[in-house]
Amino acid sequence: MAGSKKFKGVFGIVSSLTAGFSAARGLSTARADKDKLLLVNAVGSIIVAATGLLIAVRAFRKGDK
Fold this sequence. Notes:
- The chain is mainly alpha-helical.
- The protein has one domain.
- The chain contains two helices and no strands.
- The protein has helices at 2-33, 36-62.
- The radius of gyration is 15 Å and the shape is elongated.
- Keywords: Membrane, Transmembrane, Transmembrane helix.
- The chain crosses the membrane at residues 42-60.
């Protein structure tokens, strides 16, 4: 069972990193277009990606136990 939890943790880390890169691209686009609504959305997405990454790292670490 621990292997399954570790796999979920790795998958979560990869998906969170992908979401973070996407949000960073959105942030640069919002800055270039000077669109405040897109800027708020990008910042929110970055926060969500960071939180997801922390949860995935925790799941990965608990997979060892």
